User: Fold Extracellular solute-binding protein from Paenibacillus foliorum.
Amino acid sequence: MKRTSTIVVMMLLILAVALSGCASGGGDKSQSSAKKEEVTIKVAGFSDFFKGDDSPGMKVVKDFNEKNKGQINVVVQYMPSSQYSTAIQAAIAGNDLPDIFLTPQGMDLRQIVKNGWAKPMDEYVSKGFKERFTQGSFEDGVNVFEGKTYSWPLGGQNLRAMLYYNKTVMKDAGLDPNKPPKTWDELREMSKVVTQKGKGDVYGLIFAGGETTPLDQTVMGLTAGSIPTHGDIPGFNLKTGKYIFDSKEWIDAVKLLQTMKKDGSILPSSYSLKAAEATVFFGENKAAFFIDARYRMWQVKRDVPKAEFDMSPVPQQDGKEPFYGYTLASRAGYMISSHSKHPEIAGKFIDEAFASKEFFKSTLQSGVSMTPIDELNKDKSLYPYPEFNTFYNLHASSMRLGPSTTKRNPNTATVIAELGEMRQSKVKPIFGDLLIMLLMEDKGNVETTLKDYNNKLNAGLQTAIDKVNKSGANVSLNDFTFPNWEPAKDYTDDLYKALK
Assistant:
């Protein structure tokens, strides 16, 4: 009897526990179903700020994932540009784009949006998102279409040409290391002095002739004080709507380099050096001067950290101060895929991490570039090394907001997409190849060579305009022409209105 009573009591207890579980919503089963599954979003691109665990991009990804642990997991796939372009084309064909992806080379945001591969981000980011960026960061026809925002700027002003000078080399040659050349004559004479003192081991000028595409930026830098120059469009004059490779200024600049070659002042291996090799040679005191874009600074600091160098404006024929036009809104950028199942999570990551002030602080501290947020650029406490002071000052003094063809007529973006880019790298040989030929072979008429090349590019632009118009668009060469542009001043909205 006692045994029977014990069994009954135990059964009653079990039943009570079960009922209690039902009353509280199902016990463990209910708690399990209430727990949200971790959402994974994928980000893909070829931007260097995602290269390596210590990169600025990966640092904010790690912090974001830690903050949202158990709820969100961001996975980034970094690839070299050629590999990335192939992978994204395959993803587009298979309707399997990552949640956030970068425009592949050869495409722009306009094409991506037109084909329905991206969705606007406005509803997925905070209301004040765009206000954190410098004025001019968002532009109709560039990263905004029909009033909807699809991307944001990844960097700030991008100075495409500055003079890097090695202070150790100058000092060893008896030159004042704090007085870099300001004119072509000074550049030539100082280079001759360095070369003579170097006795076959140290030279005046170095460049990366093994990677010829950026060499038009070298000549662009040498001529920016005398000819209207937009840094993003080397060799094209937005004041006249014409290419300028055959201009007196560019011809004289090429002849200057030819003269310096005859002087023996150019490091002989320059004609075949890759950029990484030229960086090391410059940093290891094999050359005094290097005309290159903003990215050379951090690469020298990375590869030859003990190098003593600084930067200044590129020397001009007459010594005038050079100015470079720029635009912040970019036709390339990261965007939310239209295939994303979690656009709200993608927007949260963009808002709180990828396009946050913390991310841009990290990119500034890496020394790679300026940011699209003015207050960060001015904060000297973020500068990674003393040379960054010069870097900032050069951008502030030399760069002005330039005309935007897309702002004037969004259809110009379609023309540029047809060309590939305004420098028309599809036209072979490109300017850099022609420059190396004119220097190496020491033959060929500079005027004739550059005139033929220039004619091809002007004809190519007109052909692209005609082709786009046949598709129903309305664009003309006038849309690439801004006669009221003064390079030393910002190109403001009232100047656009004056054109009409």
Summary: Confidence is low (pLDDT under 50) at residues 1-34. The first strand starts at residue 39 and ends at 45. Residues 446-470 form the longest helix (25 residues).
